[in-house]
Amino acid sequence: MYYAANNVNPNTQCIGTATSTTPTGPYTPQGTSLACPASEGGAIDPAGFIDDDGTHWVVYKVDGNSLGGGGPCGNQDGSFSTPIRLQRLAGDAITSVGDPVTILDRSPADGPLIEAPSLIKRDGLYVISFSSNCFNTPLYDIGYATATSITGPYTKAAQPLLLTGQYGLTAPGGADLAPGGNFMVFHANIAAGRGMYTAQLSWNESVAAV
């Protein structure tokens, strides 16, 4: 299991790992963090991936907007980077192999951040979904990028997968892609806060649509 939790010293969120002999637990956390770039704001939103050759990877967001910068979710002045990083893991799926690689970062169109990565592979193409802007504003959305190599370079799609106003949704984000990329789950505003939705994707080569 990959998870984000608060690290007391330094006071920031970091990526941890935990193991169990059964899917339902109990899980035992490892003694050290998998990723904890404290000077960059910490790390959140981990998601695991197993490639066709059996190698294990995890993607996560460097939480630069936690360092400040104003606005509804921090970093409104653009002071801090919020890159998506990729870490290769050993066969035990918890031990880092080499240094992490930055595979995606925000552009001016993404507002103060990108976050919530989910990595899959379909038809030889690596696809990473992500959210842009702030979840507590209607600008929150779901985008994606593709690459022919797991380490990139990744090319962002010209249009997001989901925006506020489509299908009556407000602030869709936090998508997780199913293996093969034909389905995804995500959250969006409901009267009680945030609700979970599902969607089916169609593909025209490297271009996806809901």
From TrEMBL:
Keywords: Glycosidase, Hydrolase. CDD domains: GH43_ABN-like. One of its GO terms (molecular function) is hydrolase activity, hydrolyzing O-glycosyl compounds. Coiled coil: none annotated. The record marks 45 as: Important for catalytic activity, responsible for pKa modulation of the active site Glu and correct orientation of both the proton donor and substrate. Belongs to the glycosyl hydrolase 43 family. PANTHER family: BETA-XYLOSIDASE, ENDO-ARABINASE. This is Glycoside hydrolase family 43 protein. It comes from Sphaerobolus stellatus (strain SS14). The lineage of its organism: Eukaryota, Fungi, Dikarya, Basidiomycota, Agaricomycotina.
